[in-house]
Amino acid sequence: MGAMKSYTIATLGSHSALQILRGARAEGFATLAICTEASASLYRRYPFVDDVLVLPTYQALVERQGDLAGVNAILVPHGSFVAHLGVERTKQVRIPYFGNKQVLDWETDRHAQRVWLERAGLRMPREMRSAAEIDCPVIVKLHGARGGSGYFFARDAAEFVARTASMAPGSFTVQEALIGAPVYLHYFYSLLEERLEFLGADIRYETNVDSLGRLPSENQIGLPIEPSFVVVGNMPLGVRESTLHKVYHLGESVVAVSRLICPPRGLFGAFCLEGIITPDEQFSVFEISARIVAGTNVALPSSPYADLYYGEPMSTGRRIARELRNAIGAGRLADLVE
Ligand code: AMP
Ligand code: AMP
Predict the structure, then answer these.
(1) 34-69 residue pLDDT tens
(2) DSSP class per residue in 113-160
(3) Which atom, in ligand 2's list, is nearest to the CA of 229?
(4) Which of 46, 88, 332, 335 yields a CA-CA distance of 20 to 30 A from 125?
């Protein structure tokens, strides 16, 4: 354990940083939260955060990488890296980064993501390239929209045409709107063990879409209500046991194809398949997040599924630290970072 103290697990102060740093401490690492002035006081509250580095902005990490020299840092990315730092800046970071940066290009381009997931045999919502192709309700996603803001519904082609008339062509994608139950599946692929672990699932609590059912439709008629998907938080989910073999199969297919498109290592570490289960019990995936998702925060200190593998609490954050610890012990850290 003591040897791990010579390495520092560092991450941006937001999203799932508490879970990542708590897990790092449990595995014997030193911990560092990289914060803005606004977030620093939050991370100073917790005893497992050894140090807080305050930057003027998250983007400044690229210019301030030197500040981390000497602490033997390993950066663990989460959703805020792409959201706040961007892909290009994330790639410019030279501090050892847990994961395969090649995957970023496939993850952040909706078209590339579709190529990847379809090649893995996953069902995805149909995409329409013109109004003429619209034969069902659709969801319109503005490019660059994050966290479900910047999405809207159109019930048919006529409404789609009316609502997109003033929008630049090519500034959005159009997808079949799936009516079913959204589910987020949390995985961890271990390169060291060559094993896919299913660590849990969550559902998101989104405003205002998850509250529309509180008012009868008669009361909603005439109100200027636009469904939105802005995430408020997450709730843990146990999935039907009879579907678990499918859950593993989906994850393993995605990992197998990732080795072909991002050779040789492909996708490893934490990732999440995000989709909707329709009443015919089909799981259609609308997105992959190729690193830890914030929905895993509900599984602190552990989840029912992590408990099936580990005789001790194991969050996704701790699982990442365990993988790094095992790699350091085996002299294989270089295989897991870049
Ligand atoms: P933040 O650092 O909170 O701005 O989040 C970065 C990205 O992760 C945004 O796209 C958020 O919508 C997403 N995100 C943050 N927290 C959660 C959460 N609890 N569940 C799902 N997504 C989240
Ligand atoms: P995302 O930004 O891709 O995480 O999506 C945000 C939310 O939009 C999801 O949690 C779903 O509730 C919803 N959503 C995304 N794609 C679809 C779709 N094709 N059909 C129905 N709802 C969707």
Answers:
(1) 999 999 999 999 999 999 999 999 999 999 999 998
(2) HHHHHHHTT-B---EESSGGG--S-EEEEETT--TTTTEEEESSHHHH
(3) 7
(4) 88
All domains of the chain in start order, with CATH: 2-97 (3.40.50.20), 107-123+179-325 (3.30.470.20), 131-176 (no CATH)
DSSP label of 292: B
Strand 30-36 relative to strand 229-236, pairing: unpaired
Mean pLDDT value of segment 27-37 = 98
Pairing of strands 51-55, 73-75: unpaired
pLDDT tens digits, 160-207: 999 999 999 888 999 999 999 999 999 999 999 999 999 999 999 999
Query: With a 6 A CB cut-off, is 287 part of the ligand 2 pocket?
Result: yes
Closest CA to 38 of 11, 19, 56, 20: 56
Listed residue (118, 97, 147, 114) closest to 268, CA to CA: 97
Rounded to the nearest whole angstrom, what is the distance from the C-alpha of residue 226 to the centroid of ligand 1?
Answer: 21
State the distance from the centre of ligand 2 to the C-alpha of 285, rounded, in angstroms: 9
Residues 6+ apart with CB under 8 A from 294: 15, 16, 78, 79, 231, 234
- 123, with CB counted inside 10 A (0-12, 13-18, 19+), is middle
pLDDT digits (tens, 9 = 90+) for 211-228: 999 999 999 999 988 888
Whole-number Å distance between alpha carbons of 61 and 68: 10
Secondary structure percentages of the chain, helix, strand, coil, to 5: 40, 25, 35
Beta bridge partners of 197: 188
Non-local (6+) Cβ contacts of 136 within 8 A are 176, 177
Residues in contact with ligand 1 by the CB-under-6-Å rule are 14-15, 79-80, 83, 146-147, 204, 231, 233-234, 294-295
The helix/strand count (H/E) of the chain reads as: 12, 13
